[in-house]
Design a protein that fits this description.
Elements (H helix, E strand, L loop, with lengths): L10 E7 L4 H8 L7 E7 L6 E5 L2 E5 L1 H4 L2 E6 L1
Antiparallel strand pairs: 1-2, 1-5, 2-3, 3-4
Length: 75
């Protein structure tokens, strides 16, 4: 499952970031690290961008960026 598939209110644990290069490094610099917990806060109309809670702050991502973050759904 990827981060863009979470529904508002759901939480997940980051398993890995797919790809390489500057985009993945940027996502890591923003706090999207393996074993970190993320929660979907809300989505814009149309689903892009989306807002997640990670490491105590709100982060807005494009759907394409969120698709690179593989997660495990938490209950």
């Amino acid at each position: 499952m990827t981060l863009d598939e979470l529904k508002p209110g759901q939480r997940g644990k980051i398993l890995r970031l797919s790809g390489d290069g500057p985009l993945v490094q940027r996502l890591m610099a923003l706090g999207l690290l393996e074993d970190s917990e993320v929660a979907m806060t809300r989505r814009a109309i149309g689903g892009d961008p989306l807002e997640v809670q990670v490491m105590g702050y709100a982060l807005s991502l494009r759907r394409e960026e969120a698709r690179r973050v593989e997660i495990e759904l938490l209950q």
